[in-house]
Records
---
Amino acid sequence: MVDIPREITETAHHHRVAVVWSVLSAEIERFAAGGDARMRIIDVGGGSGGFAVPLAELGHRVTVVEPSANALASLRQRAADAGVNDRVTAVQADADELPDVVEPESADLVLCHSVLEVIEEPETALDALEASCAQGGAVSILVANRIAAVFGKAITGHFSTALDLLVDVDGIIDGKDTIKRRFETATLTALIGASGLVTEQVHGVGIVGDLISASVAGAEAGSGEELREFELATASRIPFRDMGTQIHLLARKPIR
Ligand SMILES: C[S@@+](CC[C@H](N)C(=O)[O-])C[C@H]1O[C@@H](n2cnc3c(N)ncnc32)[C@H](O)[C@@H]1O
């Protein structure tokens, strides 16, 4: 397996990224088996480079397409600190502007993490992601899960809010939510299919990690490793998979 970068493994929230990194690591390895170790990666809504910079540290070339000037400034600083400026390109644009700022079918891997829930038109963004991905390439999507939000409210006694979340068409609490929608596994895979991408893997992220206190998680006692193991073991198993705080999906663009 590709080593998970130290910057990632040392974060307190390791269990939250372990599943995504394990899927990305396997995809990186799969690509390398084709004879080229350097991937061309586009990170849409990549923020300050939480994924982009570690990926550049692994030797890949990453273009971050991100509308926030502040996030891009942090990204540039982070890339400079890590000594990977030459492998990270920062572009200020929205997801739906992707066709104007990157070449079609120019990425071996496209990331879109925690973005589809905050933008106006996820369908348009997915079409743009599909267009930027090379044939045979992969798209990594991470989104908020309605089920976990309902469950989280219910187990803290907020039953009325939980029921609102359960029936709201977008899976949000009207007027109070910071995001525009939450997804469920079925609605997400349907959306991906409509874009022409083929879903290969679905994992749950944060099956219990976000529901329990830090002391229960054992982070303070140094046993966060056990939580990480639990998250990895349950991430692809139904029904756990569909209960995580986030849904991670790896889709592939077919070769025509
Ligand atoms: C929750 S952050 C996720 C950042 C990063 N992908 C990560 O996983 O750490 C959401 C990001 O989406 C960006 N964003 C907001 N609207 C967007 C849009 N229309 N197109 C692309 N990115 C957008 C925000 O500026 C922010 O950086």
Note: Residues 44-47, 50, 66-68, 71, 94-95, 113-115, 118-119 surround S-adenosylmethionine (CB under 6 Å).
---
Amino acid sequence: MIRVKFVDERGERVVEAAEGETLMQAARYDAFTTLLGECGGSCICASCHAYIDAAWLQALPPVSINEAQMLDVIENCRYNSRLTCRVRLKPELDGITVRIPRRAG
Ligand code: FES
């Protein structure tokens, strides 16, 4: 299993998920996360947007054209923004930290 630390305005929690699952799927193991994933991982909603701690960026898969287009329209996009439904877990990501942006409203 691969450990993922999610951080949001309510604190931080570590969940375990299997290799091959996405960060978005891992977030759903923790009912307290505020990461939504409304389109179910089809890369058309951007509600799974999160910030990846800099130490982990090199280990991530490259940003696809589709993901880049979605990130372009996110208001709070940063250098370390990713759509978590586009990042599949692998052993090199064990211990990754994912920061979930505060939701408006
Ligand atoms: S879940 Fe919709 S873009 Fe990731």
Note: Residues 24, 37-39, 41-48, 83, 85 surround FE2/S2 (inorganic) cluster (CB under 6 Å).
